[in-house]
């Protein structure tokens, strides 16, 4: 794998890609040595189709706005199949930080070859998605806050809250980012959000309090990025309101943790149970039993990802979870 940094003059936007103003950015190019499907690798970072911090654009690029230890940054990533390269362009104070960690972000620090399928469904699915790699952002808070927002509510409710909070309190993404992209607020800005704004975003007091506890010790939270996944989860779970479901969702993204299978999820055990054992009523214990063949190699999360990508879901037999909106109470 090779990489380089270089300043580049800004280029005109592709058709259908609105741009904000911005000067030259930094560029890094990587040679992955194998397929990389950016939509699969980076799509897990998008919190709903309207996420202000993430954008797929018609030219095939993935845009990401992030708050790094050096400040806000915007990253544009493209995979150039003809050249066999992945290209990152970055702007803002966090540009060099984002490019330094580009290999982990696009999954080049992940080793898919470790995974050995023990189920025919997963063997077939893995062959169908050779570009699946696990991202590693190196950032904790940006995954922790939206994961807390997703606790005990529908995805649509959580996405709406994340979108509204970033639009109201985030800052414009640096450089020539697509219009409307925002960097999530600084931890101090999160702490200053009035209670009524949480309410307007549909976030109840319990989830808001959990986020406020996390941002007050954000340095300790971000230190977890340098720990092993299990140690990082233990640190996160010290905070009231953060349990195994939330910590797994975080380290899957911040660490690329291939074994951090999500427990406590409303749907995942039934999906895994149906796909691997025709048991749509499986609970967490049964799901973990079915995934046990992947525990020794530390690949249970990857196995669960492949189950989801197989699209072998049980037929719906109950109404969807009712949506709530506390902002109108």
Q: What is the tally of beta strands? A: 8
Mean pLDDT: 91
Rg value: 20 Å
> What is the terminal-to-terminal distance?
54 Å
**How much helix, percentage-wise, in residues?**
25-40%
Strand content: 5-15%
User: By helix and strand content, what is the structural category?
Assistant: alpha+beta
Order of helices and strands: EEHEEEEHHHHHEEHHHHHHHHH
Unreliable runs, pLDDT <50, ≥5 residues? 1-20
Rough outline: globular
Largest sheet: 6 strands, antiparallel
Number of helices: 15
Strand order of the largest sheet: 1-2-6-5-4-3
Core attributes:
8 strands, two-stranded antiparallel ribbon, six-stranded antiparallel β-sheet, alpha+beta, 329 residues
Question: What would you say this structure looks like, in words?
Answer:
This protein is of the alpha+beta class. Helix content is 38%, strand content 12%. Strands 1-2-6-5-4-3 form a six-stranded antiparallel beta sheet. Strands 7-8 form a two-stranded antiparallel sheet. Helix 4 (120-128) packs across helix 15. 43% of the residues are buried.
Question: What is the structure about, briefly put?
Answer:
This protein has 329 residues and is an alpha+beta fold.
Write the layout of secondary structure elements.
Elements: E1 6-8, E2 25-30, H1 38-42, E3 54-56, E4 62-68, E5 71-80, E6 85-91, H2 95-100, H3 102-105, H4 120-128, H5 141-149, H6 155-169, E7 171-172, E8 182-183, H7 187-191, H8 195-200, H9 205-216, H10 218-223, H11 229-236, H12 244-254, H13 268-277, H14 284-291, H15 300-310
Antiparallel strand pairs: 1-2, 2-6, 3-4, 4-5, 5-6, 7-8
């Amino acid at each position: 794998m090779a990489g380089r940094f270089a300043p580049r003059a800004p280029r005109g936007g592709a058709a259908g890609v609105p741009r904000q103003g911005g000067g030259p950015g930094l560029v890094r190019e990587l040679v992955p040595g194998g397929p990389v499907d950016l939509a699969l690798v980076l799509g897990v970072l998008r919190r709903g189709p309207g996420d202000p911090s993430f954008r797929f654009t018609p030219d095939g690029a993935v845009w990401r706005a992030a708050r790094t230890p050096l400040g806000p940054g915007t990253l544009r990533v493209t995979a150039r199949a003809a050249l066999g390269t992945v290209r990152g362009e970055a702007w803002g104070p966090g540009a060099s930080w984002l490019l330094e960690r580009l290999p982990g972000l696009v999954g080049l620090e992940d080793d898919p070859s470790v995974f050995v399928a023990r189920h025919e469904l997963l063997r077939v699915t893995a062959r169908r998605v050779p570009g699946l790699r696990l991202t590693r952002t190196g950032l904790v808070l940006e995954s922790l806050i939206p994961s807390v927002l997703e606790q005990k509510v529908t995805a649509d409710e959580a996405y709406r809250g994340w979108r509204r909070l970033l639009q109201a309190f985030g800052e414009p993404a640096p450089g020539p980012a697509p219009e409307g992209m925002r960097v999530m607020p600084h931890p101090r800005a999160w702490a200053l959000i009035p209670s009524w704004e949480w309410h307007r975003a549909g976030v109840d007091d319990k989830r808001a309090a959990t986020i406020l506890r996390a941002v007050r010790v954000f340095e300790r939270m971000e230190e977890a990025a340098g720990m092993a996944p299990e140690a990082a989860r233990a640190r996160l779970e010290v905070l009231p309101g953060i349990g195994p479901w939330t910590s797994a969702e975080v380290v899957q993204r911040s660490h690329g943790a291939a074994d951090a299978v999500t427990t406590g999820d409303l749907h995942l055990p039934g999906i895994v149970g149906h796909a691997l054992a025709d048991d749509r009523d499986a609970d967490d214990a049964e799901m973990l039993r079915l995934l046990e063949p992947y525990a020794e190699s530390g690949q249970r999360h990857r196995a669960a990802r492949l189950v989801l990508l197989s699209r072998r879901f049980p037929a719906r037999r109950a109404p969807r979870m009712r949506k709530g909106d506390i902002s109108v109470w």
